[in-house]
Amino acid sequence: MAKVTLYGTDWCPFCVRAEQLLTRKGIAFEKINITTAPQWREEMVRKSGGRRSVPQIFIGEAHVGGFDDLAELDRQGRLDALLFAP
Known about the structure:
The protein has 4 helices and 4 strands. The protein is an alpha+beta fold. Strands 2-1-3-4 form a 4-stranded mixed sheet, sandwiched between helices.
């Protein structure tokens, strides 16, 4: 399974929803809380092509986007394909 990384904050409702979706599907993920360390925000912005909103989600090195993008991939049945791609 590809590594899943979620950049977010503790107070963001979309971050919570993304975490819930991943947890419900049994997907382990690393959460990087950008509230406490400005260097993580800078890394998120750089890796996401300039996006500053949270969450920003990555599967492996692929940038998925935010919660809406993650949920849409799941609805389309494409999330599992990204997670388990060779």
